[in-house]
Amino acid sequence: MPRPARRRAAVVGTGAIVAGSHLPALRAHAERVELVAAVDVDQGRLDAFQELAGDGVAGYTSMDEMLDAVRPDLVLIGTPPSLHREQTVAALKAGAWVLCEKPLTLSLAEYDEIAAAEEASGAYASVVFQHRYGSGAVHARDLLTSGELGAPRVAHCQTTWHRDAAYYAVPWRGTWASEGGGPTMGHGIHQYDLLLHLLGPWAEIRAMAARLVHDTESEDVSTALVRFENGALATVVNSVLSPDEVSRIRIDCADATVELTHLYGHRNEDWTYTPAPHVAAERVDAWRTPASDVPSSHAAQLGALLDAYDNGVRPPGSGTDARATLEFAAALYKSAFTGQPVHAGEIAPGDPFYPAMHGDHPHWAPKERA
Fold first, then answer.
1. Using CB atoms within 10 A of its CB, is residue 171 exposed (0-12), middle (13-18) or buried (19+)?
2. How far is residue 29's CA from residue 41's CA, in Å, rounded to a whole number?
3. CA 350, CA 111: separation in Å to the nearest integer?
4. Is the N or C terminus of the chain more exposed, i.e. has fewer CB atoms within 10 Å?
């Protein structure tokens, strides 16, 4: 079978996340994809990125100009969240597949605009949820979905990080219009996306949120109790107020506890499996992490996307799969702000939390802190 053509890629936004994560990912797959263009409204930043990226990368200060001139196969987007919908739709209309930083959109309404653009173009848009990828996560999901660890019963998902006032001095942070929310959207989303990836569909959320420290429109801490369709119960904590930073998932099943402890990325060694007393030793041997150790990373996710491109199928981290994670965020906010439980599928057109994560709630909508 002939090797698929080398894909032509462009990046939009040339800041830290693109230079530090997307560029190394592209280099890791250099035999399959070639970076041909970069876009940034800041000419100085663009120049610095082109020097870093090397020869052959054309620079543009307009995304539309780049799409017309280059017609890339793949566009990687690393701009502030408020730009994601517009830029993703533009790339899709140009026929390019998209890999966009989280959150892909600021609301379910915006996400459904992208779904419509996908259908019209035949191209696909994936959101960066790199914690799903890598050998440790793949192995854990295989064990859980196969039933090898027994029925899931209790889970904990923790993103307890620390961000200071200087972090929120960046103009687009901490506002609904530019970031879509606080740590529920911008920080914890990676970890609870992985929880959903491991446990499957959620059914009900009861949540709370608060501004305890930072002078932001959105929250700086949120907590949730979650019931999954399989009956498991979970707690989810998203914080930027925690001096001792950690990212953690623990799932207690009938036959074992699986736990992941890390901060911004994981390897095989970050996953542990503790058998229940009744489990035979020879069965536990099968739970050992795989011989290959692939870290969670942009490179691992890009490889999965390129596989999908080569096979002409929808890539992981897109479509209804990625929408479920955004719906989880919207439901968490709705429950926290209304004090009521929220069920999966409840937030639809006509619901105030469909076009905006704040739901135009009087204590949380932007006008309250204008």
1. exposed
2. 27
3. 15
4. N
d(CA 29, CA 238): 33
CA distance readout (Å), 8 to 31, 96, 170, 221, 338:
11, 10, 33, 40, 47
Other beta carbons within 10 angstroms of residue 143's beta carbon come to: 19
- Which residues 6+ apart lie within 8 Å of 342 measured at CB? 204, 205, 206, 207, 331, 332, 334, 335
Check residue 298 and give left, alpha or beta (phi > 0: left; psi -120 to 50: alpha): alpha
For 212-239, what is the HEC assignment?
CCCCCCCCCEEEEEEEECCCCEEEEEEE
Cβ atoms of residues 29 and 64 within 8 Å: no
Sequence length of the chain is: 370
DSSP characters over 185-201? HHTTHHHHHHHHHHH--
pLDDT tens string, the chain, 370 residues long: the values are 566 789 999 999 999 999 999 999 999 999 999 999 999 999 999 999 999 999 999 999 999 999 999 999 999 999 999 999 999 999 999 999 999 999 999 999 999 999 999 999 999 999 999 999 999 999 999 999 999 999 999 999 999 999 999 999 998 899 999 999 999 999 999 999 999 999 999 999 999 999 999 999 999 999 999 999 999 999 999 999 999 999 999 999 999 999 999 999 999 999 999 999 999 998 998 898 788 999 999 999 999 999 999 999 999 999 999 999 999 999 999 999 999 999 999 999 999 999 999 999 999 999 644 4
User: Order of strands across the sheet with 7-12?
Assistant: 58-60, 33-39, 7-12, 74-77, 97-100, 125-127
Q: Distance (Å, rounded) from C-alpha 199 to C-alpha 303?
A: 24
Helix (H, G, I), strand (E, B) or coil at 243: strand
Q: Which residues pair with 260 in a beta bridge?
A: 249, 271
The DSSP symbol for 352 reads T
pLDDT at residue 10, rounded to an integer? 98
Task: Report residue 338 as tokens.
Answer: 């209304």
The tokens describing 47, both together, are 């120049």
HEC string for 51-82 = HHHCCCCEEECCHHHHHHHHCCCEEEECCCHH
Question: What does the DSSP 8-state code read for residue 175?
Answer: -
